[in-house]
Amino acid sequence: MTEFDYAALPGWRLGDAKAQFSKVVRLAASGQPQRVTVHGRDTAVILSVGEFQRLQALGEGAGLHELLSSSPLNRLDFGQEGVRSPVREVDL
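Given the sequence above, the corresponding structure tokens read:
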């Protein structure tokens, strides 16, 4: 998973975002996430409901254990449990 570059989003200082909240929401609803900063630090991202739902669905996918357990190969018998190799002497 790659890290998202929040700095690439249009940025609003908190006071400006509050003063133009309807514009911020309208832009986010049109598919353009908006970044809000407080004292110069990234604090929030406003996005559309559709984008939020899409991101939530990505996080709700099956975990690795569940995927491997439900695989048609989960009952595959390899026929051999393992090979025991001789242990060599080591001077410590």
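The longest strand covers residues 41-46. Try to locate this feature in the token string yourself.
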